[in-house]
Every structure is written in C-alpha cells, then in structure tokens.
Amino acid sequence: MNSEVQHFDVIIVGGGLVGASLACALLPMAKRHGMRIAVVEAVPLPSLASEPYQPSYDARGTALSYGTRLIYEEMGVWQALSERVCAIEHIHVSDRGHFGTTRLHAAEEGVAALGYVVENHWIGRVLLSHLQQQGGEAISWLCPAEVTAITMAAERAQVTIHHQDQQQQQQLSAALVVLAEGGRSSLSEQLSLDYQEAPYNQFALVSTLTPGKAHAGVAFERFTAEGPLALLPLTDSDDGSHRCALVWTTPDELIGERMDWDDATLLKEVQQVFGYRLGRFSRIGERYCYPLALKQAREQVRSRLVVLGNAAHALHPIAGQGYNLALRGVADLAERLGRLHQQGEDLGQLTHLNAFVEQRRQDQMRTIAFSDKVMKVFAEPRFPVQLVRDLGLVGLNMFAPARHRLARAAMGLDGTRARLHGA
Ligand SMILES: Cc1cc2nc3c(=O)[nH]c(=O)nc-3n(C[C@H](O)[C@H](O)[C@H](O)COP(=O)(O)OP(=O)(O)OC[C@H]3O[C@@H](n4cnc5c(N)ncnc54)[C@H](O)[C@@H]3O)c2cc1C
C-alpha cells in the first residue's frame, strides 16, 4: 500500500466513453484554473502511437446525434472524430409485414446529417489522444487501475485504487467523485445505490456486414414481431467494401441459437428479415450480444458523488439514444463544475449536485420514455395497435411538422443545454 494520499478536485471512476468525455469537457478549466482531475480506468489502454487506424469488421459502432456533434465541437474533438464518421442523411423506418413506413431527411431539416455512425474504438482513440496531447499535467490518467472502494467523509471522498500492473493499493481523495464505470462493477452495490430496473427479455446481437449496394447514408430501422433490426451506415473499409452496423434485437430464448449460427446462416436470416433494399449481404464480422433492460438509478447524486452514463441509466438501443443522453449530462455537469470551481465553491456540496439532477431530469425522462415507448408500441402484436402504429408511420411520412418533431428528437435538439465552459 502506498500510504501517501493524492488529492484531486474531481476523480472520475471509469475512462470509458462517458468518463473520457467528461475529462475532455473539464480540460479547459483544469488547464486555465488549476482544477485537478484524475481518471481511473481498469482496462489497459491500447497504444495510440502503434498502428494506423483501420476500419474493422469486429468493432462496435454508435450512432451519434447531431446534438452530440455540437457538444464534441465545443470540446474541440469533432474535427478529429469526423475523419471516420459516416453521416446519416436519411432514416427509413418500416414495420415488417405491414404497410407503415416513414422517412426522415437531413436536407428537409436544413442540416448536413441527422446524425453520424462511428466505431466505438475510434471515439475512444480520439478522446484519449486529445487528453494525451492537450492534457499535460492537468489530468492524471491512472490506468490500469481499479477503484475498489469509495467512502464519503464530510470534507472529502476517499477512493481506494488497485494498480493492476504494480499490484499496489493507493488512496486518493477528492471534493467530488463521478461514478462512470458503466454500472457493471460492484461499486454501485457497495454504495447501496438503488436502481429501477425492467428487463426487456431481449438481447442485442451486434455485428458488421457488407451489403451488395452502397447504403447511401440511410439508417434503416425495421420493426418485426420479434423485435427491431437496425442497419446503420458505416464508412467503407480500406479495401473499398461497403459496411453497415447491424443491431438485431433478439428474444432471450433465441439468442443462444443465433450466436451459434455460422456466418452464412446468420447472413441468410438477417437478409430474410431485412429484405433486399441493400442488395445481397455478403460478409459478416465478429458478433457480440448484450442483455437489454431499462435501468435507471433512483439516486444519481449524493454528497460528494455523481452517477453518470450507463451507471446512471441504460436504455434500449433501438433509438440510439443512450450515449447521446449521457453526453448531454456530461456537458451540463462540466459546465456547472467549471462555474462552481471559478467561484471557489465546494464541488461536492449536495445542493449544487441536486441542482444538476434537476437540470437533467426532463431530458432523461423524455429520452427514456421515448426509447421505451417506441420499443413497446412496435412489440405489440394486437391488430388495433398494429393498425394505429402503421397509420401513425404513414401519417408521419405525409405530415411534415410531425416529421420535423421526430427528427429534432432523433438529432438530440429538442431540449436546452448549457454551453461548455471555456469552449
Ligand atoms: C447494443 C448497443 C448499442 C448501442 N448503440 C448506441 C447508439 O447507437 N447510440 C447511443 O447513443 N448509445 C448507444 N448505446 C449505449 C452506449 O453504448 C452507452 O451509453 C455507453 O457505452 C455508456 O458508456 P459508459 O462510459 O457509461 O460505460 P462503459 O462504456 O461501460 O465504460 C465504463 C468504463 O469503466 C471502467 N470500469 C469499470 N469498473 C471500474 C472500476 N471499478 N475502476 C475503474 N474503471 C472501471 C470500464 O473498464 C469501462 O472502460 C448502445 C448500447 C448497446 C448495448
């Protein structure tokens, strides 16, 4: 055990997409006003300097909303990120075996793209490069190191970390701890955080495939009796093959069988569900599966603690909103902490943190309800509901103001958000 306690203003537990984004968002304050930040990440980092980045068939992708682009621009990372994003110019929603279809178009909304699809590896690489190149002494990146305990005291929070490479424990302290560990570690249990959780009894089967025709920037969302199937446009691979990210919602009882199919069978089955709008599918990469549940922490702040990202809320991936929602939380928190730090306030004081939760409440409620309701309405097999939803899709397709509202929600532009401090 290293007996020396290192002190910080903010300790971020987890350097995944959300934790690394928060560190990037706080960086200007850290550099300009001496805010001391530590990020503790359990998984060793890939060496950034190693090989040139290659688009992969084995990587997972995320749909970023247009609103997320605006946040990344303020953080100063969009330019680098945009090198490998694929613009979503159109969204095509259909109901398999029924007549309802609707389409959203970027041009109709007066934007270049409704959103962007990007490999998670690339987002991670851009955020970490930014921190390494711009962070200097301002950010302490402790990795590979696992947070094993968090205890709250009146004046400061105490964090115990285990350095995996040195087999050594260390004590840190901070005015504020941000829990951004994805909600899968034992820390939330240790802290007795209470969650509201409803399983969907489904898994997301995720992979990358090659369609016969170019996707032309169209994101497809196809609802079926068993659950939705999304095909999202990706950048072409280096050999020029087209690529789409597949997210296939699969009932619990079928996931084992589908994960065991050989590639040819999987391609054939996906083709049957999706049809031939993108020609014949020819190649499929590594597949991954994730159990799906709607999960939300009832208590997202405590004195000296904020819970963020998947640790605070996990959504159905159908509408591609989980990370986009989390990033709006990151932006609001960074702006608030920057302001409080400049005013010499205690960052961990509960009244400040309660104000943050209040600021986030509406956006969280609306986004979670949107993802959950879409999922449930399209899962409903009863004829009247089916008919109403298909009429709804047709109506949306014909009625521009309703389409506009849906497009604004998909773009993450239907709420208000503070601008980032120092941007
Ligand atoms: C199939 C699927 C598709 C999705 N598609 C989209 C989409 O298109 N658009 C969208 O907006 N969202 C999408 N999401 C949601 C998105 O993936 C999540 O919101 C996002 O990954 C959450 O990031 P996070 O940083 O909170 O958690 P994570 O990515 O899980 O990161 C947590 C990090 O904490 C580290 N960690 C854990 N425990 C400790 C510890 N004790 N000490 C130190 N470090 C620790 C982990 O190593 C990890 O790096 C999707 C989700 C799924 C399942």
UniProtKB/TrEMBL annotation:
Gene source species: Pokkaliibacter plantistimulans
Transmembrane regions: 6-27
Keyword Flavoprotein: yes
Domain FAD-binding, chain residue ranges per copy: 8-342
InterPro entries tied to this protein: FAD-bd (IPR002938), FAD/NAD-bd_sf (IPR036188), UbiH (IPR011295), UbiH/COQ6 (IPR010971), UbiH/COQ6_monooxygenase (IPR051205)
PANTHER family: 2-OCTAPRENYL-6-METHOXYPHENOL HYDROXYLASE, UBIQUINONE BIOSYNTHESIS MONOOXYGENASE COQ6, MITOCHONDRIAL
Cofactor(s) this protein cannot do without: FAD
Organism taxonomic ancestry: Bacteria, Pseudomonadati, Pseudomonadota, Gammaproteobacteria, Oceanospirillales
UniProt entry keywords in alphabetical sequence: FAD, Flavoprotein, Membrane, Monooxygenase, Oxidoreductase, Transmembrane, Transmembrane helix
Pfam family, one: FAD_binding_3
Entry similarity comment: Belongs to the UbiH/COQ6 family.
Protein name: FAD-binding domain-containing protein
Pathway: Cofactor biosynthesis; ubiquinone biosynthesis
